[in-house]
Amino acid sequence: MDLDLKDCVIIVTGGASGIGEAITRACLDEGAIAVVVSRVSENVDHFLEEMRQQNRPCDFFEADLADTEQCRLAVEHVRQKYGRIDGLVNNAGANDGVGLESGDPARFLASLQQNLVHYYAMAHYALPMLKESRGAIVNISSKVALTGQGGTSAYAAAKGAQLALTREWAAELLPFGIRVNSVLPAEVLTPLYKRWLETHDDPAATLKAITERIPFGHRMTHGSEIAAMTVFLLSSKQSSHTTAQHLVVDGGYTHLDRALT
Fold it and tell me: Given this model, what pLDDT does residue 217 score?
């Protein structure tokens, strides 16, 4: 299927690790120019070095996305270097476990800054170029927005707000031909997820208990499966009439009875 993304400029926040890395790879596979906006880490360094060795068109702008001024500078970097933005994938964030009883208002607000506010900031600053290209926005949310999880009020609030913003922006940006959608993963074996598993006494047993509750295939969702849905939604050729949608890619984890065998 030709998604017609060749030479399109796509920003992917957190795009060099985990789900974001899979999305960046999928964009590059479609011939797009990917601009990763992220902090630096060991995973990020390894990925960027791989891209350099393969001579793939993957740009990088180092930014702490919790700082909205750095979000503005990231978009300005893209404007000066490429002069256009065809797609924005808001992806960066992490479940930081700020609960109701275990957290406090200051940590709650800090978590929203890390997980939510940059979604708005990146879209706000990218909007003039998205208008010019009649581009697309994809917000990566989470099943936590629909199901709750317990002990993670701030992350759940951020993810729920991302779904609300998806439909609000889809409504506001209709006159400009900009489509806005969300993708909701559930259980994806990212490096961050693996580190969480390692905090358990028996990581293998914990993983097995989780996968047994995923109805379709009793396996984790692959990052490439989230990425495939994301690049489809970025395509003005193949998903030109899809906007304001919340698409759950999770093997039925959210909507099917987890007792199914």
Answer: 93
**Dihedrals phi, psi of 62, to nearest 5 degrees:** -75, 125
State pLDDT tens for residues 41-73.
998 999 999 999 999 999 999 999 999 999 999
Domain coordinates in residue numbering, the chain: 9-186+222-249, 187-220
- CA pair distance 27, 253, nearest whole angstrom: 26
pLDDT at residue 195, rounded to an integer? 84
**Catalytic-role residue among 82, 119, 125, 155:** 155
Query: Is 155 among the residues known to form the active site?
Result: yes
The CATH number that domain 9-186+222-249 falls under is 3.40.50.720
Q: What angle do CA 191, 249, 96 make, to 5 degrees?
A: 40
Distance of alpha carbon 222 from alpha carbon 227, whole angstroms: 9
Q: Which pLDDT score is estimated for 198?
A: 85
* Residue ranges of the chain with per-residue pLDDT less than 70: 261
